[in-house]
Structure formats: C-alpha cells, structure tokens
Amino acid sequence: MEIWKSLSFVYFFLLAIQQVFTKRSLPKYYMSELCGQTLQLAHTPVPAGRVELVRRGDYRDNMNCVWTIIAPSKHFLMVMFKDVDIDKRFFKCNDYLQIYDNDKPSGNFLSGVSKLCGENHPRYPIYTNKNAMTLRFVSDSRHDDDGFDLYFNVYHQGQCNTSEFKCDNGHCIDKSLQCNGYDNCGDNSDFCPNHTSSLIGIIVAVIFIVVVIVVIVYICRRKRQKRGRSFKQNNDVPMTTTFPQSQPQTTYQPPQGQGYPPQGYPPQGQGYPPQGQGYPPQGQGYPPQGQSYPPQGQGYPPQGQGYPPQGQGYPPQGQGYPQYHGYGSSGGPEGYSQGAQYPQPGQYASQYPPPQGPEGNIPSGAPPPYPGPPKDENEFSKVPL
What we know:
Residues 228-385 are annotated as: Disordered. The protein is built from two helices and eleven strands, in the order H-E-E-E-E-E-E-E-E-E-E-E-H. By secondary structure, the chain is of the alpha+beta class. Strands 1, 3, 5, 7, 9, 10 and 11 form a seven-stranded mixed beta sheet that branches. Strands 2-4-8-6 form a four-stranded mixed beta sheet, with no helix packed on it. Helix 1 runs antiparallel to helix 2.
C-alpha cells in the first residue's frame, strides 16, 4: 500500500516537472478586471492567452461581465477548458458562463458553451467560425465559487509561413506556441520530440531517485521496528537484583566438655568467692535482733504510763474552774490562789523518782519522769493544766 502511495506521489511529481520544463507561460487575463473591454490579438506579442474569472478567491455576487476577443482577419480562435467551478443548485444554473460566436453578446453560441455551470466542462477543443468571440459571465446574490480557467490561441488553415508551425490537422499556429506544454493545435501535434526525450530522461532519473529513497526509508523503518520489539521484550522481563553471595556462617563448636567461655577465661566459680563466703554470715555482721536497743519497757515508760489516765488531768465534771476576778498584784489572775488547787512543778519528784537506765543513769533526751498514778481522787485537782 505504501508503494502505491509512493508511485502516486511520483506521478504527480513528474507532472509538475513536466509543467516546469516543457511549459512556457502564456499571457494571463482576469475577466472580472476586463468587463466591457475588447482584446485585439493582432496587437499582442503572443496570439494566445490564458483566462481566469478572478485573480484570487471566489467571484463576486450579481456579476454581469462581458469581454470580447478579436483575432486578426482570416483567422479563427480555438478554446480549451482546464477547469470549471460555477454555482449550480438543484440542477439549475444559478451562475453561468456563455461564449458567443461573434464580437457581440448575441447570436450563436460556441458548441457546448451556451450556458456552462457546475463542475463539468468540455474535454475537447472548441473552434469559432469567425475571428471573434464574446464571453459573458452572470452570477446571483446567493452563492459564489471559483469560476473557470481556460486558454485560447489564434490559428488559420492553408499555407503556413515561416513564422508559423503547421499542425497535423492542417492548422497553422504561431511558432512561439510550439512545445509550450499546451495543446494549441488541438491534436497534440505541436508537442516536441526533443522535449519528450528530455522528459523521459527526467522521468527515469526521478524514478531512480524515488526508488532509492523508498528503499532507504523501508530499511530505516525495519530497523526501528526491530529496536522497538527488542526494547519491549527487555521491558517485559522482570528485573532481578543479584546480590553478592554471602559467606556461610561458621558456628564455633568448642571441644567436647569445655563449653563456654573459650579457653583463656577462668572456669566458672573461680573468679568470684563461693556463695556465702564473700560476705559475713547472716546475723554476724550486725548485732542480734533486739540487742542494739534497750529491751522493750526499759528505755521508755511502760505502755499506758506516759500520760495520766483519762479523766485525771482535769477537774471532775461539775467543779469547773474558779471564777475570774481580774489580775492581782503578783501578776496572776485575781481571785485565783496561785498554787492552791494545782500541784507545783517538782512536788512529786521525791515520791516518783525518774526511771534509770541500764547502769542507773538517766539517758540523755529521755522524756520527763512519770509521776505515777495518784494516791487518791483528790489529787486529780492538783494536776497542772
């Protein structure tokens, strides 16, 4: 399929080369710019021309353009269409081209050009019966297209002079029209063999170049496809990471019966004293339990003797305290007989000696001696507050 595309490209390329090397340009006329005028070919350097409706783009709306072409006396005109694109809707020519067989827009039309529209046009040369023709183009206000493209030339029949070329069909055309790439005779007899041979050589050379290019492109594409497949296969293979093989671990096995630690360390039990020898036996390093302090009941008063019994340190219920009558001259409260009802400090010291220590001495910091229980109930009132 690609080869056929390449051949089609070569064909159109060769046609373009043919146009360049074999065609000599004809004078070009734009009819939309020449409306109402007349072209006298007897006063032109080349008795031929190419006609287009507009210079560029689409033609205008509401056109009614008439242009007349007149050849020298006893000469005729030949017309050949190249392209036609005129508006046609619903099988009706809304815009059209007419070519009359005289120098006025009336009378007979040229064959097949009475009302030309659409895209179909005559594929054959059209000849006038007189030395003039009149072109008329009409357009409406709705839709526009490109128009038309044609070429024409002057000819006559009979004896050709030295400045003319005699065609195979008996037409005599100007010698400048020979081998210009256009069928000015109407039978292709004005094409030159020398130009044809040159064209054949050019065609062969171009074909060779194109074949070489096609081969190179094909080879490059094949290599690219191979690289693409190889890259795809490489991507499909799962990636694996190879790590260096680790050395097998060796487990130390000491000689049978030795175990750990290895030889060079003291055997278990030699580096430390035997259990129970590094420290004094339990109970020897310290005094026996209960010997470092005095026996219970010796250093302190017996339990319950450190304070007077409940109810002895205060007067009996109902007696209260003596009524206050102010301060006396001795600094005490007036009305109280200081020392009358309450014992004074040291009153019972002789009756209740303080407890003695293990050696008969009072320990330093010992609490005051306990006076002992009262001998009668009246001594409750002597307990100082």
